[in-house]
Amino acid sequence: MRRRATEVAARRAAPSPLAVNAVWDGVGALTVISRGEDGWRQVREVAAAPACFLRLTDVDVDTRRMLTNSRAIVALKIEGDWLRVEWRSRDELKAATSKPRWGKDGESFFDQLKLATYEADVHPVRRWMVESDAVVQRPRGCYLDLETDSRVPFSKKESARILCWSVRDAVTGKVAGTGVLDTDDDASEKRLLQQLWQVLARYDQVIAWNGSRFDFPMVRARTREMGVNVNFRHWLWLDHLELFRKLNVSASESGDEKQSMALEAVAQAVLGEGKDDFDSSRSWDAWFAGGEERARLVTYNARDTELMHLIEQVTGYIELQFTICELCGTFPDDYGSHGTQFVEAFLMRLARQRQMHFKTQWDIGETNPFKGAFVMEPTRRGILHGVHVADFSGMYPSIIESWNLSPETLTDIFLQENAAFRPSYLVHVPIKKRERPADLCEVPNYGYCFKTQPVGLLPEAVTHVGQLRKAWNEKKKQLAPGTPEWKEADRRATAYKIVRNIFYGVISSPFSRFFKREVGESTAGTGSWLIQETMKVAESRSLLGFYGDTDSGFVLGGTDAEFQSFVDHCNRKLYPRLLAEHGCQRNEVKLAYEKKFKRLIMVGKKRYAASYEHFAGTPATADSKPEIKGLEYKRGDTVRLARAMQKQLIDRLLGAEDPEAMLHEFIELVTTWKERVLQGSLELRDFTQAEKLGKELREYRTKKKKDGSDAAQPAHVQVAKILKARGSDVGEGARIEFVVVDASSSPMKVIPACDYASGVEDRFYLWESLVYAPSQRVLEACFPAHPWASYAKCRPPKSRPAPKPRSTAKHRAAPTGQASLFGNDGAKMSAKGSGDA
DNA sequence: AACTCTGGCTGCTAGA
DNA sequence: TCTAGCAGCCAG
What we know:
Elements: H1 2-13, E1 18-19, E2 21-24, E3 29-35, E4 41-47, E5 51-55, H2 61-69, E6 73-79, E7 82-87, H3 90-97, H4 109-112, H5 124-131, E8 135-136, E9 141-148, E10 162-169, E11 175-180, H6 186-200, E12 205-208, H7 215-225, E13 236-239, H8 240-248, H9 263-271, H10 283-289, H11 291-315, H12 317-328, H13 339-353, E14 382-392, H14 395-402, E15 410-414, E16 440-442, E17 448-451, H15 457-478, H16 484-507, H17 517-540, E18 544-549, E19 552-556, H18 560-581, E20 591-604, E21 607-615, E22 618-619, E23 627-629, H19 640-655, H20 663-679, H21 684-687, E24 689-692, H22 715-725, E25 735-742, E26 749-752, H23 763-782, H24 808-813, H25 826-833
Parallel strand pairs: 1-8, 9-12, 12-13
Antiparallel strand pairs: 2-3, 3-4, 5-7, 6-7, 9-10, 10-11, 14-19, 14-20, 15-17, 16-17, 18-19, 20-21, 21-22, 21-23, 24-25, 25-26
Helix pairs in contact: 5-13, 9-11, 10-11, 12-13, 12-16, 13-15, 13-16, 14-15, 14-17, 15-16, 17-18, 19-23, 20-23
The protein binds a DNA duplex through residues 249, 258, 335, 338-340, 342-343, 364, 369-375, 395-396, 501-512, 520, 523-524, 549-552, 604-607, 629-630, 632, 634-637, 691-692, 694, 700, 703, 705-706, 711-717, 746-748, 769-770, 773-774, 777.
């Protein structure tokens, strides 16, 4: 405490610098950009030598002399117990501290000296931010949208002309500038780009929808191509789509919202309004036509930046991200908004106060996976009534605090009681049967021991952020909902919650410099143990704990008061006892009576739908929405018909007075849908499937079959290859839309959704696999006695192995003329089964 | 090139 | 008809 106070005083003496952005020059200095009180952009140079650390006790006189004489090293400084080594260049620092690129098992220069180096890989910008205790300023942000020559595929973007741009101020929402190409020549485009950069010069941050995949690389490519001299790194580039996706996953209701992340679709979902009616794939023609046509292109362009502004007004995600960056000390761009960056920036500041440094980590080390959460197999399925749900509040953070779990509090003492839980990589460590020392706490089932004092780096961080969150939550309660002050408090509370929960993941990630597998393993393992101990106690009170996932318990039986008293018992008696038995000196573990379901449809692990009776004691009202987890309705990779049918089924199951007595109604629901799917008039978007490319196309390996030919690739990969051959942009992350036209043989035959011609879809497959199967599983859970599988079958059987098919796919690809009505084609349907049904 | 974690469900292909 | 392995997406 004492040292903390003097440090605070010292910091007051040297005020923290402000920074809106900082860029390393690649040699020995940073360009720091800040905003003065007058709002002007200030740019200054700050010396920043690349550095690493050595433990003073590791360095003998000879080594010291050698380092002093090295031409690559410019300074040696003693900082507490550490020797700070400053280098002439980052390349030389890396060469001396990382394994040689060539030759396996090579050792670095310092490896050969048997000298461990610390934090050599830390980027100079990060080091300066941490050591100067810089404060991240709110950037002046603007929205950007480009329209480019539609005739040129993305893969050749360097040769696509920019036709027009729109920049909008992120605060006022007003247009800050627009530009249109005059004539189709380089001089003209160069002028257009110079105008753009003049407008951007007033801003620190550029935000674009899908910017990291389109607008940013495009503007860079053309700027370079046209010979406009600009340093791109002086701006913070932020992809609004990526941000929206990350923060919206948990918020989205149904799979419908996940179908498309196009600005149009998101605007419709968030705002209820969309883009101008304009076909951007004809941007070149519009520009070329001039006059009114060209004016419409410009209007359309400006509308896109307006939509981004409006989306931010509603979601506040950009502000939320800035709040996190401000707390952690990272810059709000695509790079600085990752979990590892947040946590590294945050923890390194704390570590500095403690004079802690971390091992150099140029590349990731071991990636052994570890055991995670406990998910109980549901012992009751189907329709259940009056289900109490308890959950641990902030389970993992509270465990980290209570067991003082941190990379540096872990000891090498190992108490093994249950060999079954012993991790395989510890088999060679002798079992120590001695008693747990008084100043250690023990991780249940695993036997790892952590020091209880002093408070670890990780628990301190978690507690610090938790206190901030609590403070802002309390402030929020005192404010009128919806006011700007309330929104500010709400955003801060949310930001702190996100950061508090992210620590566990980062500490468990081999990509992080704080990675310690035992810490992640201990956190998750203790959580698993706590939930199971809690369930045991529930059983002893004749409450039936029938399901639980990670930090929650679903319980049948008992009144609300009885369940509350059970929760209270756990908090007052059970956890204090359990934690004390394991040597914890702190208890932050807390169980809460979260909610009660009026009716729950339990389908399986991580899959259920429920209506509320109350939430945290507040009774549900008639328009309380059901809670749906994991079911196809929630997923973006299912077809629309499947989501619609499942939703209707769920609504009836949850809404009906006595669903158990209404079997016939559900049978009717199924037959109606079957009729509709097999015979009805459907739209393309009813049955389009969409999946994202998880990696670059070339990384999908084609396996060889036994006969030496290539095995089939996943449907969306096949289609992506077709699209790529046509020049489309199908990189990693691209959503590939496709339609299955024939699933009667393996592999299935698929086409790109954009090639769809009426009637080519395989409706037997659509019903059996895509639409009915998801609802069938729900029905089977609710009415196990009924033969639900019998409604699935609809494809006429093959009477004998099909004769050499007369290319069924091609046959059907020809439009039938009889548009979407499937009315008179019993013949066509049979044709799908085989050639001669 | 960048990356918070693990658990779990489902669909498809290939091979028995 | 079954299973292993790949892939994607979701729960927590």
